[in-house]
Hints:
By secondary structure, this protein is mainly β. It is built from no helices and 11 strands.
Amino acid sequence: QVQLVESGGGLVQTGGSLRLSCAASRSVVSINAMGWYRQAPGKQRELVAVTSNRGTTYADSVKDRFTISRDNAKDTVYLQMNSLKPEDTAVYYCYARISTAYRSDDYWGQGTQVTVSS
């Protein structure tokens, strides 16, 4: 029903920056939470940053370098990534918890590759 469309991934050198964006494909009743997870080769998927009206959570490994923001009018979430390191290399997945009139569901983007070279 709802698709999350991601953009902004790519290849960057150590110390560089990227900004990821993710937008819902259609209007919804409510987006309760929106954020980003990532999965590196040989690793489990981990939370990067999630935001809601109740607050924002960052992984310890990115707290001093990444910033998550939302444009509620456009149902869009951004992840500004600065001072990138090779260990940030992963597939980044947009996440949203979206409510309709009668239920709430989790949605995931297809993933966008971020590669940080040394």
